[in-house]
Amino acid sequence: MVTPVQGPTGILSWRRVKPRRQRAGVDPLIIELSSESNSGPATTDIIRHGEIVSYHLAPLGSNYTFVVKIEMDGNESQAIYKPREGEAPLWDFPSGTLYKREYAAFLLSEILGWNIVPFTIIRDGPYGIGSVQEFVDHDPKQNYYTLEDGCADQLRVVACFDLVANSTDRKANHLLMGDGGKIWSIDHGLTFHSDMKVRTVIWDFCSEPIPAHLLESLTGLRERLDFPVDSLPSLLKELVALLPPEEVHALKLRLDWVLEERVFPGLPGRSRRRSG
Question: Counting beta carbons within 10 angstroms of the beta carbon of residue 113, is it exposed (0 to 12), middle (13 to 18) or buried (19 or more)?
Fold first, then answer.
């Protein structure tokens, strides 16, 4: 197998545009995609439409995960490909759905405007349909336990995201330190279960109030989920269509719970260790 080479193509950036406030108190999120490169296709276009020209199996993980190189118009990008056919059976998650949950987590991150999950799509690959996620250039020696105190604000966002997405597999190495000190959240195949199953290493903020700006985003999402499906913004409409009805209902219940409690859950004997 061929080891892919990292390709310096256009850099993906997202910005949130806030339109005029609606009477219902809900601002639809408008996500605009831009590239900092003035020539060649954006990374997202390469991942969507390019050809997977090489791939190799990642060494760790219970499911088959491939690092792939994708080329289009002489440009290339590296990504993580998780095919449905490579998913190991689980007793508590429906078979063949983990790749959809990877995409659902990306959608949720973008709907909330938090931009913590790398660009992800569902597309065909060497082993059939699966999720394909933009590769994050990072220091592999860094993980949750090695992050400095100055990352606390970013970790609060991830901790809140995990409550809403019902993340069942938040391990230390599922947080990547990217360029400029940005923390990216990866590996979301075990999310959105209808039963509460949050399992995480992030207990820094036990019983701490959830920041107001995060609660504001969650309030807007919860209000939208009661709208008729046809009136939903496109990303939220796609998320609702992707999840089975019982998981959409459970998402509403988790939002209700977080918005009522307004604090991060606490555990006996746990205390915060990060600041800044």
Answer: buried
